[in-house]
Write a structure and sequence with these properties.
Blueprint lengths: L2 H10 L7 H22 L4 H4 L4 H11 L1
Helix pairs in contact: 2-4
């Protein structure tokens, strides 16, 4: 039950490169997911390490659109 939304989000993540708005929506969902995961399993650096590439995704989406 919990894994399916994550799988769907990961499979649809290339849609983030279709527009800057979509990139912002997808990365916001990703930050929310990583914040929730960091809070539940109490990993200190998890929240900062994994979303570190999201600014590059937003920048690339802006260049491609």
């Amino acid at each position: 039950f919990v894994a399916w939304p994550v799988i769907v989000w990961e499979c649809t993540f290339p849609l983030a490169f279709t527009s800057p708005d979509m990139a912002l929506a997808m990365t916001t969902a990703g930050v929310g997911f990583h914040a929730g995961t960091a809070a539940v399993i109490k990993l200190n650096n998890f929240l900062f390490a994994f979303p570190a590439t999201y600014p590059a995704v937003i920048a690339c989406a802006g260049l491609l659109a």
